[in-house]
Structures are given as C-alpha cells and as structure tokens.
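Sat 14:20. Reprocessing the chain from the morning session after the first attempt stalled halfway. Input below, unchanged.
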Amino acid sequence: MTPFNEPDLGYKPPSELSQNKVRTTSTITRRDFTRSVGACAGLGLTGCAGPSNSGIRLKLAHTLNNDHPVHKAMVFMGQKLSELSSGTMSLEIYSNGQLGSERQLIELLQIGSLAMTKVSTISMEGFSPVMKLFSIPYLFKDTEHFWRVLNSDIGQSLLDSLRGVRLQGLGYYSAGSRSFYMTEAPILTPADLVSKKVRVLPSRTSIEMVEALGGAATPISWGELYTALQQGIVDGAENNPPSYYLSKHYETAKYYTLDEHTSVPDLIIMSRRVFDGLSEQQRAWLEEAMSASVIHQRKLWDAAEKEALSEVAKAGVEIIYPDKQPFRDAVAPMKTALAETELGPLIRKVEALEEPS
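Finished this time. Tokens:
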C-alpha cells in the first residue's frame, strides 16, 4: 500500500489483505478479478458487478489502506450514492492495492474492466501533460487559492483533458502540501539545501525544483526511503505531514520545514466506457455523491494533518515555519521557463485567481 500522497507508479503484487466494500466484504486477488471481468464482459457488463437484486454496483479500487481519509471518503460516497439512488446504485471498494498499482488500475479503467480509482495527478502526467501544472512549486498562494483553482473552469478543463485517454475525471481530493524534512539540520532558507541529497518523486519537475533550490535531487523508491534516511544515503526528503508521520520517517529525520512547496491533489477518475454506459440520471447521482464526498474528505484530511503535526511534535520533531519568499524566489526562473511551454495559458489563469473575485 502507499502513503497519503505518494503515487504508486510501478508494479506491486496484489495484496492479500481483506477487501472493504460499502455493501459486502470478501477477499479477491487480481487474477481472480481479471477472470471475473472476462466473464462479465461476455455478458456486456464491464467495470461493474452488473445488475442484481440490489441494482448496479460500480467497482472501485485503490492502493491505500482502510484508515486513509481517501478510503473513508469513498465509503461515504458509496453510502451517499446508495441514498440518492434509493439503493439502485452502490460502490464495491477494493483497497490496499489488491488489484495492482496505480498504473495498472488506470489501464483497467481504460479497457472498461474497472469503474473507478484514485490516482495522484503525478501519475497522470504521462496521460495528460497538463497535469504537470500541479508539480510547479509555489504555484498556489495558499489553500484557498488552491481550491479556487480546482473549483473553477481550470480544474474542470484538467478533468476534461482525460477524455482523450478513455477516462472521465470526477473530482479532486485533498492531499495537502509537500514540505522538506531533514536528518542532520533544519532547512531555514534555500541556502541550507545546498549540496544536500534530497529524495524526490520520479518526476522531472520535482527534480528541477530541488536542483533550483541548490539541492541534489535523488529519486528513491518510497519503500527504501526509511533505510536511506537511516544510513545517510539521503539527507532528507519531502512529503505532507500525514505521510511523514505514518511512514515513521520522523524517527530519523527530526527537522520538518513547512515550506509547502507543492500541492498535488488526488484525482477520482472513472472508465469512460463505464461512465458512458450509465443513464443521465445515474450520472447525476454519481456526480452529486462525488461532490459530497469531496467536502467530507477535506474535513478528514485536515484532521489527519493536525494529528500528524501534533504527534511528531510530541516525538521531539522540530517543526519550522520558514519565510517562504526566498524559496519562491529561488524557483521563480523555473516557473518562468514553464510559462513558455503549453502550460503557460494555465499558469496565467491560475495566477489570475490568486485573490477572490
């Protein structure tokens, strides 16, 4: 399973952990699921359990555990969907990476074998280059600006960009902001990052950001990071507070600088084939349930962040609230260069929403 905002980009064997459904509970492997999908496809039923006495059950899979705010929000969405549809629609949720990595789940959506999943926008950069927008450091002034953008025509246009790859974007879940944590000394200014080896995501934009700040960007898999911090292979890393806490990286990296350089949301996406197979009324119910779950998930995420910061502070972590302007200034040339690419029009639209209208 993956942490709070760590995209699962590669292959992982399906977990044997239990399946958590909104309506029923059982265990399934990816092989068994694939076989059942083949049987359903023969009946013209793809991405869902098909019509039954309880109506349409849409299959949703993700790589997170059952305590994660995203999973809890999905359960809430399933309950809301059932309520709105008077029990004729529901979600069947496969958690803990039972059906594969984020990449594999996206592929299942594209062929219509799975109805829905959660992915990081980083995972979607190869499918829709405009998703790189979220990897630009200090693009958003604050949390309010971030959500103004997501709730605007900009956020909708990014969701719509997935239609060309047989996907339907339903909405965004919060995944907080990523900040630096170090093993030997705190990061107070960009100068403190010079020559420091910092673990980053395997994203070109993430690498360029750390290099612009003077650090040595070091891509390392999430599963190897705890040991890498312990053994000094890297001097630090970056992630949101819940991931920092739940990964126990705070046991080795005792300095957490809340510079909040990027805000990378999670996406709830759906198979275009399955979405097109729903009636107009069924789509309306699903979209309303999704909207309600977004509000619920934001509350869950905020609570998880507060708990994480409280717990790491109790464990002796020094939490630093730096002046962000020197960090913004250091990466400004990177943002300027990206403004000359296909992302330019979107960047300018985002900047125009810095203040509420």
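The first helix runs from residue 30 to 42.
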